[in-house]
Amino acid sequence: MCEADTHGVVRDCRDQPLLIFGYTFLSVYVLMNVMGIAYNDKMETRLTRLEAIIPTLATREDLAHLEGRMNGAIQKVETTLHKELTNQTWLIVKWMSGLLVTLLPSLFAAVFYVARYTH
Q: What whole-number distance in Å separates Cα of residue 69 and Cα of residue 66?
C-alpha cells in the first residue's frame, strides 16, 4: 500500500497509479491541458507568457489612486444615505403625529360617550 507524504503526494507506488492530492496523474495531465498548460512546455515559453501578463498588472500607485477614489465615493454614498434616512425618519414622525392628533380626540370622545351614556 502506498502512503502520502506531508504534501499529499504519493510517491514510489509500483502497483498503483501516481496520485497527487487524490487525483491520478492522468487526470492532472488532462486538467492542465484543458487549462491550456501543456505538461511539457519549456521554461522560455512559460516566462514569455508571464512577461506578457506583467504590464497589465496594477502597481501600488494605481491601487493607491483607486483607493482614494473609492474612499471619496464611499463618503459621498454615506452622506447621501444618512441624509435620506434622516428625511425618512422625520416623515414617519410627522405622519404618526398627525394620526395621533387626528385619532386621539376621537378616541377620547368615544370613551367618554360609552362611559357617560351607556349603563
A: 5
